[in-house]
Amino acid sequence: MTTIAIAAPGAMGAAIGAVLAQHGARVITPLSQRSAQSQQRAQQANIVDCSAEALCEADIILSILPPESALSWAQQMAPLLQAAVHKPLYVDCNAISPETLKQVAQVIESTGTPFADAAIIGLPPGEQNPTGPRFWFAGPHAGKLAQLSDYGLRIRLMNAQNGAASALKMAYAGINKGITLLTSAMLINASRVGAAEALREEMQESQQALLKRMEKAAPDMLPKAWRWAAEMDEIATLNQGELATDQLYRALGEICRQLADNRQHDQQFSALLADFFQPDADKAG
Amino acid sequence: MTTIAIAAPGAMGAAIGAVLAQHGARVITPLSQRSAQSQQRAQQANIVDCSAEALCEADIILSILPPESALSWAQQMAPLLQAAVHKPLYVDCNAISPETLKQVAQVIESTGTPFADAAIIGLPPGEQNPTGPRFWFAGPHAGKLAQLSDYGLRIRLMNAQNGAASALKMAYAGINKGITLLTSAMLINASRVGAAEALREEMQESQQALLKRMEKAAPDMLPKAWRWAAEMDEIATLNQGELATDQLYRALGEICRQLADNRQHDQQFSALLADFFQPDADKAG
C-alpha cells in the first residue's frame, strides 16, 4: 500500500486526501496542532493522524498549503527529512512563483530528498468539481508521480524543469484573474462618467462571451480581492525583466487592494459594478 | 439637403463619407493638400473638395482623424469657425481621452461653435462590416445628431456630458486590447519556461472562448503593437487616480513597445506566440 502524506488538511488538501484514501492509499497528516474543524475534516476524509517524523516515512509528501507557508513548512521539514533513512518524494503543489519554488527545492534537495514541482489547476474535488482538478508535474522526478492516477487523481506530466509547473499555475491564474481585474476596473471607470449603459450595449453586441464571463467573475472576485492582491504580487515576479509583466501585475495587485479597501468604506466600486450588471434592479425598487 | 464636412478622407472618414453621400447628404472635405491616394478615395466616395473656409458652412463637421491630430486640427479650425457667421455643429469622433476631449471642446466652444463628443465603435463600413460601426453621441448637443440615422449611420445617444463618449471608447478599447496584451504577455512568459503545451491544454479544457479569441487577436495585434502603445498611454489618463488603471495601462503600453521592438530584432516573442497557437507547424516541417 502506498502511503501519501498531506502537509495540512485545508480545503484542497483534505479533498485531495479523501480521493486518495477512497482509491486505497494510506493518507497521513499531523493533526495534533490543528483546529477541531481541521481534525474533523481529516477524519471525514479518512486521513490518519501522524507525527511530523512519521510524515517522512511516506512514499510521497504533497505540500498543499496557503502559498505564504510553502517555504517555511519546507524549512520546518528539512531537519526531519535530513534525519530520515528512507527519503520520500517531496512534491510542492503550491501557488508560488518559480523564484519561490526554486528556494523550496533548494531547502528540500539539500537534505538528499527528491523533489518535484506541481501545479493544481481547478477547484478541489467535490460537488462543484466532480472530476477534480488537474495535477501537472515537472522536474526530473515527475515521472514517478504518474502512479497517482491509480489513486484517483487527474495527472499530466510536463516534459520540463522544476519551476515550469509553478510558472504554468502563475500564468493561468494571471490570465484569468488579470482579465477579471482589468475589465472590472474599466467598467468602474466607464460607469463613473455615465458610459455604463453604452458600454454594456456595445459588449452585448460584440463581446457577449466576455460580458457573460464578467457577470459571474466580477461579483465573485470582490470578496476575494484582498487575497488576490498577494497572488498578483507573486505573479509579478514571474520572468521579471523579460516583458513588463512585473509592472502590469503590481498594478493589478494595487487595484485589488483598492477594491478591497473600498469594500471597507463607501463601497462605491462594488455598487457601480452591481449596477453595471443589473441596471434595472435599482430602477425597479 | 444636409451638408456634412469630414475632417479628412482617411480609411474611416472616407468610408463614413461614402455612406452619408449614398443616403443623399452632400459630403465635403478639403482635398488640396491631400495625397493622390486620398483624393482618389474621396472621389470614389462621392466626397466633394472644398476650401477650409467652406468647411465651416457645413451643417455638421465630423472630426475623424488619427488621435494625435484631433487637438491640432481643432486649433487650425478655430479662427475659421470664429469668423463664420453660420456655425456648424462640430463633432469630435476621435479615439482620445476625456482629458484631451475637454481641451478640444474648449478650443471649439470658445469660438461660439456648438460641440458634441462622439465615439465610433467598430470597423469602417465596408465588406468586413456591412452594417457599419456604431456612433455614440454625448453632450448637450447630442440630440441634434439623431438625424444622422436618416443618412445611413447607426446612431446611439448617451444621456451624458461631453467626455462620456470618449470614456466609452477608451474603456471599450482598454478592455479588448488590454485582454489581448495581458494574455499574450503571459503566454510568452509561460512558453519561455516550457509550460506552453500544458497552458494550451488547460485553456482548451476551461477557457475555450478565450483561447479561440486569442488565436486571432494575438497575431493581429503584433504588427499594430507600436500604434497600440500610444493608445494604451492615452487610456492610462482615463479617470487617473480613482483606481490604479494609470499604472496598469502604462505597463500595457510598455509591453506594446517591447513587443514592437522585438519584432525589429530576434522576433523571439512572435515566434513563441506562433508556436503556442500552432504547436505542430514546426514539428511537421
Describe the model.
- Two copies of one chain form a homodimer.
- Chain A has twelve helices and eight strands.
- The first copy, chain A, is of the alpha/beta class and 285 residues long.
- Chain A has two domains: 3-161, Rossmann fold; 167-276, N-(1-d-carboxylethyl)-l-norvaline Dehydrogenase, domain 2 (Orthogonal Bundle), CATH 1.10.1040.
- Chain A has an eight-stranded mixed sheet with strand order 3-2-1-4-5-6-7-8, with helices on both faces.
- The mean pLDDT of chain A is 93.
- Chains A and B meet through strand 7, helix 6, helix 7, helix 8 and helix 10 of A and strand 7, helix 6, helix 7, helix 8 and helix 10 of B.
Give a quick set of tags describing it.
homodimer, 285 residues, alpha/beta, Rossmann fold, N-(1-d-carboxylethyl)-l-norvaline Dehydrogenase, domain 2, 2 domains, 8 strands
Architecture blueprint of SSEs:
The structure is a homodimer of 285-residue chains.
Chain A: E1 3-6, H1 11-22, E2 26-29, H2 36-44, E3 48-49, H3 52-55, E4 60-63, H4 70-83, E5 89-92, H5 98-109, E6 115-121, E7 134-138, E8 154-157, H6 164-192, H7 196-206, H8 208-221, H9 225-235, H10 245-264, H11 268-277, H12 279-284
Helix pairs in contact in A: 4-5, 6-8, 6-9, 6-10, 6-11, 9-10
